[in-house]
UniProtKB/TrEMBL annotation:
Positions of the LUD domain: 34-215
Protein name as catalogued: LUD domain-containing protein
SUPFAM superfamilies reported in the protein's UniProt record: NagB/RpiA/CoA transferase-like
Organism: Actinophytocola xinjiangensis
Length: 221
């Protein structure tokens, strides 16, 4: 998932890269994925484990409705998998981002309100523990409101490298891998990112609201 930039890109070559802990890029094995799926199920989430990104893409196509608006949260996982384009550009789905294009760009509050409580949100998280806790971070927090409660339905696509043993490791992954990777992506465009808000999801209150698709490959960060 993308951590949104703090400013609009501008040429600023003096921005320095941050160290990246590449150990967090290693995909979890089948047993870890199985434990994570079991942990998620026990916490009120629907969990699927698929082998490949292509499998995840096909499954998400089955999970998403065609007759209700879908909001694609900022996410490198969605970009790299092709799901962002599938929802927002193909015409197969009702894209909330496409509908937001008709909102006055100066009316930031209107855009935030529409994105905060969509019918369906599709996105990712930065870490999943083996006992089923999810962690998502953001600069602005725009995708966190629908994740937490605003969206009626949530679908997260999560690469195997994001599965970690426990919450402490999940938070360390965010700060030493996900954030530095996002910072570098924006640094190369002359901007900076930062961690503005952190959401820890420990259990889901509403049955069948949230679905997690665990992918047996590395995707996103």
């Amino acid at each position: 998932m993308s951590i949104e930039p703090s400013i609009e890109p501008s040429i600023e070559p003096s921005i320095e890269p941050l160290p990246v802990d590449e150990s967090f890029a290693v995909p979890a094995g089948p047993e870890q994925l199985s434990r994570a799926a079991k942990g998620l199920t026990g916490r009120g989430y629907t969990a699927h484990v698929v082998d490949t990104v292509a499998d995840a893409r096909a499954l998400v196509h089955e999970l998403l409705p065609r007759d209700r608006p879908v909001f694609t949260a900022a996410s490198m996982t969605l970009v790299e998998s092709g799901l962002m384009a599938d929802v927002d550009d193909s015409g197969e789905f009702r894209s909330l981002r496409a509908e937001l294009a008709g909102v006055d760009p100066a009316d930031l509050r209107a855009q935030i309100r529409l994105g905060a409580a969509p019918d369906v949100v599709l996105g990712s998280v930065h870490a999943v523990t083996e006992d089923g806790v999810l962690v998502a971070v953001s600069a602005s927090g725009s995708q966190l409101a629908p994740y937490a409660a605003g969206a009626e339905k949530v679908v997260w696509v999560v690469g195997a490298q994001k599965v970690v043993p426990d919450l402490d490791t999940a938070l360390r992954r965010v700060r030493t891998y996900s954030y530095p990777r996002e910072h570098d992506r924006w640094r190369r465009q002359g901007a900076e990112s930062f961690i503005g808000k952190t959401l820890i999801l420990e259990r889901e209150f509403t049955p069948d609201r949230c679905t997690v698709v665990l992918v047996g490959e590395e995707i996103g960060y």
